[in-house]
Amino acid sequence: MNHKLLPPLAALRAFEAVGRLGGVRKAGKELEIDHAVISRHIRTLESLIGKNLLVRESTGYQLTDDGQVYHQEIYKALTTIATATARLTETTERKKLRIWCIPGFASLWLSDRLGDFIKHHPSIDLDFRPADASPDFRSKEVDGDIRYLRRWEEAAVPKVAYKLEFARPLVYRAAWSVTQGDPDASTHVSMAKALASDAATLTANQALQCHGAIGYSYEYDLHLFMKRAWALAATWGDAAWHRARVGRAIL
């Protein structure tokens, strides 16, 4: 290791905070030092490296291309240092896991399964928060967020967050198979229809349960959605029929 190339730790912490939070004042508030000191640290680091790492825009500070690459590495390095220190100094402290999630998925699926997680991981304090809006990963207020993102929303995910794709609608695969003449298209279509049928029935049921008898009134025709789900299942096959079709194709 060439120790002459090691920048001051204070400058690295300042750069990491500004890049993550998008502002000098925000970084100063988090690190509990004056924002003028933050700016001085950034200038020192840029002078040492010989490249611009940040550029000021109307919405705050943005990382340059070089700054983006450097920030990712510095973020990993500082995280490694913090983790190694925590292992030695916080052996008796309980770990904390902070998870956000869209309310619907939280109440209908995830909340019923948290008990098992807590049972098998008693040393972890779980902070579970259903929320409509995504958290700000740059402020370190959350460890993970579970929600459905449309393609144009993925760009808003901060670079410091790792994106893990757990599922993508099977209708994408079914549509591609049909248009491409895939010999297994019928199986892919049945997989999509089985889940779509379940989703339509579940949504209609939950809507009626939430709104009660008013869902059967003339003004609020929620009951029609349930009837449509039933009609589509009768016309194109219900979830059980399509699952049996997929089972025959597999076995």
What key attributes describe this structure?
single chain; 251 residues; mainly alpha; Arc Repressor Mutant, subunit A; D-Maltodextrin-Binding Protein, domain 2; two-stranded antiparallel ribbon; 10 helices; 56% helix; elongated
Question: What can you see in these coordinates?
Answer:
The protein is mainly alpha-helical. The chain folds into 3 domains: 87 residues, Arc Repressor Mutant, subunit A, CATH 1.10.10; 62 residues, 3-Layer(aba) Sandwich (D-Maltodextrin-Binding Protein, domain 2); 81 residues. The protein contains 10 helices and 5 strands; from the N terminus they run αααββαβααββαααα. Strands 4-3-5 form a 3-stranded parallel beta sheet, covered by helices on one side. The protein has a two-stranded antiparallel sheet with strand order 1-2. β1 and β2 form a beta hairpin. α1 packs across α2. The radius of gyration is 26 Å and the shape is elongated. It starts with 8 loop residues before the first helix and ends with a helix. The model has no long low-confidence stretch (mean pLDDT 83).
